[in-house]
Amino acid sequence: MPEGVVPSWYGLTLTYRPQELGGLSVERFHQALVAEGAVEFDRPGSTCPMNQLPLYQSPAMLFPGHPHAHRRYRAGDFPVAEHTHAHTIKLPVWHREQDRPLAEQYIRAAIKVSDHHKELL
Question: Gene3D superfamilies this protein is in (predicted)?
Fold first, then answer.
């Protein structure tokens, strides 16, 4: 990155693979991270696949005369996007040197929860 440029990343997305932790659900894994004090681990809510947004569920409300206003996207219409969303955990991007201890704390929390996943099943 060029000198003087300030990075502005939205977030660091991590892909959760339940099969690697005995089938532990992403929700339970996330709860355990938060219980360890790693409260900035986040499950994306507002960043869901677009087909799940109200506009795509009921387009006629905004576009009543549109020839395809009757078309509704259903769960399963975009399986890759839906799977990705269902298995994503995200973090803010800490980029300053003084953020390093916090980032390391989050790494320790993730390792601890992963190491003790059998207790969460």
Answer: Aspartate Aminotransferase, domain 1
